[in-house]
Amino acid sequence: MKVLLAEDSASDRLILARLVSRLGHTVIEAEDGTEAVELFRETQPDLVLLDALMPRMDGMEAARQIKALAGERLVPLIFLTSLSGAGDLARCLEAGGDDFLVKPYNRVILEAKINAFNRMRALHQALSHQRDHIRRQNQQMLDEQRTARRVFDNIAHTGCLDAPNIRHHASPLSVFNGDVLFAAQRPGGGTLVFLGDFTGHGLPAAIGAMPVAEIFYGMAAKGFGAPDVLREINRKLRRILPIGMFCCGLMIEADFKHNSLRVWNGGLPDGWLLRAGGYRVAIPSRHLPLGVQEPDQFSASMTVLDAAPGDWLVMMTDGLPEAPNSAGESLGEEGVLSVLAGLKAGQEPFEALLARMQQHTGKPELADDLTLCCLQMVRAEAPEVMPDKIPESALTGPADWHCVYELREQTLADFNPLPLMLHICMEVPGLRSRSGEVYTLLSELYNNALEHGVLALSSEWKTSPGGFSRYYQERTRRLGNTDGHFIRFSLGHQPREGGGTLTVVCEDSGDGFDFTEYSDTVAHQQAASTGRYAGRGLEILRRMTRNLKVHGRGNRVEIVYDWWFPDAAITSGA
Amino acid sequence: MNDKPHLDVEALAELQDVMEDEFDVLIQTYLADSRSRIDGLKEALATADPEHFAKTAHSFKGSCINIGAPRLGGLCFEAEQLGKDATLEQAPAVLERIEAEFSEVAQRLQNFGQEV
Q1: pLDDT, tens digit, for every residue of A240-295?
Q2: Which chain B residues are closer than 8 Å to A12 by Cβ?
Q3: What residues does A78 pair with on adjacent strands?
Q4: Which residue of A20, A374, A562, A565 sits 20 to 30 Å from the alpha carbon of A200, by its own alpha carbon?
């Protein structure tokens, strides 16, 4: 240990220097306070022995300056004194001294004090190193989280969370608190939103979020519906997550065309559908969280709700109802409900809930583990041409082909063929930019064939109030008996100068329905007059295709769809 | 007045043990230091500076206690008190006794050193 010794009396200095060096320490000697401060700065000693009364700068002032120079370092400072009054001794300690040594020096006491301070110094040093180590590790962890977040963002981009009808709050690093929020536009229109809350925090939760993001966005882009996505997420999480770790989630599939919602809640707080006129529908958890059940036990059955443009859908993780105020009390789900019940006409639930949370917690910043998302129903828009990121060459991929795909009996109830058929069509170079249109063509044909052909459901029901949910109930019931039924798709594509032609024939085993009424005369009037769904669906097909033909008894529909490369379209239009 | 001994022989023996061959250097250092302290006291008295008088007496006291000259240390304490109280009237008398005691201590220390 390096010991700085400041003492103006030469004989005292001599004695003390000898006592200290005999203990095995290096001694640096100063004759007054000013020299002591200078030497302290130069030599960075580990312990200081300081005479209280010295010429030039006295010990008290030197002590103050030395303590300031030492900063965070613990440098024990022992005053040497022949002062005897208690007040004088107290002043030494007030000036920053840690102890004092009274003359005449006693070598036993001196040794005991130096050793005690050396232990304290070592302890302080160990603590400081540990603190610095923790600080560095924490910094490293934050850096790593930021990097991981960038990787995560490349998979779980914001999707369409920034759409004008979606409001959301999520902490930038929320994925490390186990919260995930995804939203995607479905190829044929409509929006899919998933809010998830993993058990646990930190890296395990973030790692679990990665495959969920990939499944969600991958499947949504391919046209899969909410039940398929949920089943796949559950299957994946069940396989990869350890026992006791799972993901509470709420999935929304908003269909703006039919003004309906399909919802699924497994373990999250109640979601809410807020209809006009202050009418509220709860979306309670009816399922176990994702990753708990084996795939064959998992139920992806969705609740169907009617909604209208302007209605809001509210979903949240439990960080919102459970956030404590300064007294440790939380709002609870009742508190959330009272905010929603108190909404005035035209007031947005998102703003109201956030304002209530800020008032509750007394902090402008909301906690990290709180995610809130509100989705507003809007009017359906025409399917947009998806921007194509990768320029595609007309020379790669199949352009001239034909295939037949037939679904039979029970498979009609169990399997949605649209993603697979869309995938086949998207292999055609250049056609990917039309995925929304192609998905719409395929899904209209398929839904007509299944619902009006095979299941013989009447579209009349959908127009009656609340009929949509009844329609879905009946649909589910009839899907229980599809014996002897089939739907057959014949898909073909031929290249053309500047684009191609996709031909789709969709045939079903149903009794057919009165297509002639639509196909020959009704198309134009139909769209204008009743706006009934089946008629409108057919009108969409007619508008998007070069040719639409209905064969037989109304159970064989053929469409011919021409498309152009984006730049070729400009040329031909000019 | 104090009835402390001129030299604390026990303390000096311990110092001798600690300082080993530097003990004589210590004695000479102490003696030289003490002479300059006495000069300092005289100077303070001449310039009528009670604060300087007190501080010098205080430091002198410290080294006397450490070296093992308790009676001289006691006199220095008296001088320090006079300086602190700014009552230097009796200071010349105390200083005279300090000088006399110092001669005594110096004599005895020289002898003590030579005994070894």
Answers
A1: 888 888 999 999 999 988 888 999 999 999 999 998 888 899 999 999 999 999 99
A2: 62-63, 66
A3: A49, A99
A4: A374
Topology (CATH level 3) of domain B9-115: Four Helix Bundle (Hemerythrin (Met), subunit A) (1.20.120)
Cα–Cα dist A436/A13, whole Å: 92
Give dist(CA A174, CA A369) in Å, integer: 6
Query: Going from the N-terminus, what domains does chain A have, and what CATH number goes with each?
Result: 2-126 (3.40.50.2300), 156-376 (3.60.40.10), 401-573 (3.30.565.10)
**CA A339 remoteness from chain centre:** 24
Chain A residues with CB under 8 Å of B25 CB are 14
pLDDT digits (tens, 9 = 90+) for A169-226: 887 666 677 888 999 988 878 899 999 998 877 777 778 888 899 899 989 988 888 9
Residues of A within 8 A of B12 (CB-CB) are none
Q: Compare all CA atoms of chain A with the CA of B61 and give the residue at the minimum distance.
A: A82
| SS3 assignment, position A299 | coil
Pairing of strands A279-283, A271-275: antiparallel
Give the closest of A14, A55, A104 to B29, CB-based.
A14
Given CB atoms, is B19 within the 8 Å cutoff of chain A?
yes
Spatial neighbors of A384 by CB under 8 A, at least 6 apart, are: A436
Minimal C-alpha gap between B33 and chain A (Å) = 7
- Give the three-class secondary structure for A512: coil
Going by C-alpha positions, the residue among A535, A539, A531 that lies closest to residue A259 is A531
A and B: number of Cβ contacts within 8 A: 56
Q: Each residue of A468-514: pLDDT tens digit? A: 778 888 888 898 888 889 999 999 999 888 888 999 999 999 887 65
Q: Where are the alpha helices (DSSP H) in A427-505?
A: 435-447, 460-463, 467-478
Predicted confidence band of residue A391 (pLDDT cuts 50, 70, 90): very low
For chain B, what are the domain ranges? 9-115
- Cβ neighbours of residue A215 closer than 8 Å, sequence gap 6 or more: A229, A232, A233, A236
Query: Which of A195-204, A398-407, B3-12 is least confident?
Result: A195-204
